[in-house]
From TrEMBL:
Keyword Acetylation carried by entry: no
Tree of life domain: Bacteria
PROSITE patterns referenced in this protein's UniProt entry, alphabetically: HTH_LYTTR, RESPONSE_REGULATORY
GO terms of molecular function: DNA binding
Protein name (database record): LytTR family DNA-binding domain-containing protein
Keywords: DNA-binding, Phosphoprotein
Boundaries of every Response regulatory domain copy: 8-119
Cross-referenced Pfam families: LytTR (PF04397), Response_reg (PF00072)
Native species: Chryseobacterium indicum
InterPro entries, A to Z: 2C-system_Tx_regulators (IPR051271), CheY-like_superfamily (IPR011006), LytTR_DNA-bd_dom (IPR007492), Sig_transdc_resp-reg_receiver (IPR001789)
Length: 231
């Protein structure tokens, strides 16, 4: 029986030896299928248009367009695991919600940790199970389905790969990127004000040019989000 392939991945790497190592590592995991491999971002963009990609293994120092610049240009980017010899770009990578940052030379055990993190995120994305009439949402927390009334949400806070959903009842913690959660919210009812915050429009108590107060909590307005927020 042919094993089911769960995740399609793309390798973007301009060093032949590093490319071979990554191919070998990925081939050891039956849940992954290499859809394509390339050495530059321009060809990678073409492959992304032709295939449904779940995960990109991305080197940063590429010809023509560098790795992070390539990511910033993608509208609906897949999950990304960065592979690089340079540690100084780690912070910028996490600001772009990458799954992991692998420093070369990469050991197989470190690679395994990284793809397990990816799998966990993929499963977490399934935590949003259902939105019915935009009134409530179910999330999976500790193997339980928790119903959250959307009108009860004050704001959503991002902490690395987790989000905290602040509601009238309690604060729920879910392992999921805030960008993924944002896609399932009605923009008429919720607004992104910062890379780390989404707020319920109806719960806004005070608004200024630099911050919004929700449930007594002052939240900063990110510079890039200010043009989209009306006083």
């Amino acid at each position: 029986m042919i094993p089911e392939i769960k995740y399609n991945c793309l390798i973007i790497e301009d060093e032949p030896i590093a490319m071979e190592i990554m191919e070998h590592f990925i081939s050891q995991n039956k849940d992954f299928h290499i859809v394509g491999k390339c050495s530059d971002a321009i060809y990678a963009n073409s492959l992304l248009k032709m295939h449904q990609i779940d995960l990109i293994f991305l080197d940063l120092h590429l010809p023509a367009i560098k790795g992070f610049e390539f990511l910033k240009r993608l509208k609906n980017r897949p999950h990304v695991i960065v592979t690089t010899a340079f540690h100084q770009y780690a912070l910028e990578g996490y600001e772009l919600n990458i799954v992991d940052y692998l420093l070369k030379p990469i050991s197989y055990s470190r690679f395994q940790d990284s793809i397990e993190k990816f799998k966990h995120l993929m499963n977490a994305e399934k935590a949003i199970l259902e939105i019915e009439d935009r009134d409530f949402i179910f999330v999976n927390i500790a193997k339980r389905k928790i119903k959250i009334i959307l009108q009860d949400i004050f704001y959503i806070e991002s902490i690395r790969e987790y989000i905290k959903i602040h509601t009238k009842q309690e604060v729920y913690t879910v392992k999921m990127p805030i960008s993924k959660f944002e896609k399932d919210l009605d923009e008429n009812n919720f607004i992104r004000i910062h890379k780390s915050y989404i707020v319920s429009r109806s719960k806004i108590e005070v608004m200024s040019a630099s911050e919004i107060t929700v449930n007594g909590k002052k939240l900063p307005i990110g510079r890039t989000y200010r043009p989209f927020i009306s006083n």
